[in-house]
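tool_call: predict_structure(chain=1)
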Amino acid sequence: MRSYWYGPLTLTGIAAAAAAAALDQASKIFLLKVFDLAARGPVRLGPFVDLVLVRNTGISYGLFQTQGVVGQIVLLTIKAFAVALLWVWLARARDRLTAVALGLIVGGAIGNAIDRLAYGWVADFVHFHITTASWRFSWYVFNLADVAIVAGVLGLLYHSIVGEESAAKAP
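tool_result:
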């Protein structure tokens, strides 16, 4: 009988998810508890990047901001459902790139869910920006969980474009 929850590359995905969630949480614990970014305020790392604490009560890019327990529960429920669907997909993965990409997405989602459970918000802290005399560009503030999610999505997109073409060319 085939399992919905476990496949030949599930452990690969679990390893990617664990690494993504662990690195995300380690960076947040350091910046929040050891470095105390909240008390220090913005810290310039270079001409285009700062560390700044943003308490995100919504989802990606600050969409769907929630204020209160009910909103947080709704977001956590949606996230849990999405992770379950991704896990089923992971159990059916046939190549390592797909397994790692899905693991990164799951790990990023788990990293942000831990924040939501611990603080009631997600800690975002990396701010890319460009400022000139006549122009200002400011990207969203994000964290390592968001980087893992984006990397996972890019991996899936790459596989769907290049991976499928490579498989079609094989004899």
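agent: DSSP finds five helices and four strands in the chain. Proceeding to next step.
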